[in-house]
Amino acid sequence: MDMAPVLTQMGILVFIMAVGFITAKLGVTGPEFTRSGSKVVLNVLLVFTILDSVASADMELSIADVGWDVGVFFIMVFICSALGWLTAKLIRGPVDRRGISAFAVAFTNTVFVGFPIIESVYGAEGILIATLSNVPFNLLVYTMGVVMINGSARGMSVRSAISPPLVATVIAVAWFLTGWELPGFVVKCFDIIGGGTVPMSMLVVGASLGSISIKEALSDWRVYAVSFVRLIVTPVIAWLVLRLFVNDEMLLGVSVILAACPTAMIATALAIRGGRDEAYASQCVFASTVLSAATMPLLIWLLL
Question: Least buried of 13, 131, 150, 245, by fewest C-beta within 10 Å?
Fold first, then answer.
């Protein structure tokens, strides 16, 4: 695989993230920007990115293909989750951190980091496949993920899983299966608005990291252990398992890239809601996000 586009994309993402980090440190942005910005990305920009992937993709996809792809993504998340439980058990730590360790390995930052990389590698077709991962991610993060962090089913809600990206995914796939073409100006609107997903998402990531003490984030060895499993072990295991029965190179590549992403930013929000150690959750997000700038290109080069 030609690594130039991947390295270029990672460089762009890191640069934009650095801008977000610096603006947070300078006080230009704050917690209110992170909260509102993440909502804009998830509820507006990502929706148009998903719709644009359907309008721009040049590929055939049947109902059976959709079901198969979603099934593969479910398997990928279950692999990550099993490794998460094992990691939490091995590194132990305070009770209110064990569930966060498991969650940090199980659920990845697919939207803010994975999708931009996939678009640079596979184009609109890759994004179309990647959007199907919203189905298992949204269904499991608010059910199994909440159980991981809380240690019980308290706060679990299937209703929370019904998010705009999930609804957009269902609509987009249904529209794609009809084969109908949208007017050119509508496709252009999708493209322009969806184009804001990458810069806005990385600014939000950078601003979020800017609110964390770097010294504290780098002082706990468990954070490094979690990041190592999340960024190295998990994608390798996912690749070894999925390649046994996934013959579609794009589907395998998209799955591995999503499995190689850093910890999902929602870990901090769920930790706060569950009354757990949100500082530790933020540290896992911070360390894995920074380290992923080096690990993701390496794994894509080695595995794909």
Answer: 245
Average pLDDT over residues 100-104: 94
Is the model's pTM score more than 0.90?
A: no
Closest CA to 295 of 99, 6, 2: 6
Residues in the chain: 304
* Span 236-285, pLDDT tens digits: 999 999 999 999 999 999 999 999 999 988 887 788 777 788 778 888 88
Work out the widest C-alpha separation in the chain, in whole angstroms. 56
Residue 109 backbone zone (phi > 0: left; psi -120 to 50: alpha; other: beta): beta
pLDDT digits over 123-160, tens only?
Answer: 888 888 888 888 888 788 878 888 888 876 665 666 76
Per-domain residue ranges for the chain? 4-303
Residue 151 φ then ψ, to 5°: 80, 5
CA atoms of 115 and 254, how far apart (whole Å): 9
The architecture that CATH gives domain 4-303 is Up-down Bundle (1.20)
CB 262 within 8 A of CB 288: yes
